[in-house]
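chain below, 106 aa
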Amino acid sequence: MAVLARELWRAHRKALLAIAVLLVVSPLFGVIGAELVGYHEPLDVAAERLGLEETGLWSGLLPDYTVPGLPEDWAGLSVGYIISGLVGVAIILAIGLAILALVERR
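prediction:
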């Protein structure tokens, strides 16, 4: 698996670096920019107008892009965005590598 990861890094270095840059700048849009322009998720606004409340069996791995224990100021929210992005990218890459490994076995 380590050999496969090294080969993929060499073959897709630019794309992976672009993903890393996007992860780092994502809080500029998701936290800081949204606050500056007063953006709110449309589904959250609709649910609030209808008087609906969040319920469910599972709220997600990192709900609302937050990490428990981090402060709820812009710095903590920004770090939460980056960590959420890293977790999401890692999950997608792991799934992709697993599928690739299965396909290459055949």
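The chain has a mean pLDDT of 86. Residues 33 and 49 are 24 Å apart (CA to CA).
thats it, cya
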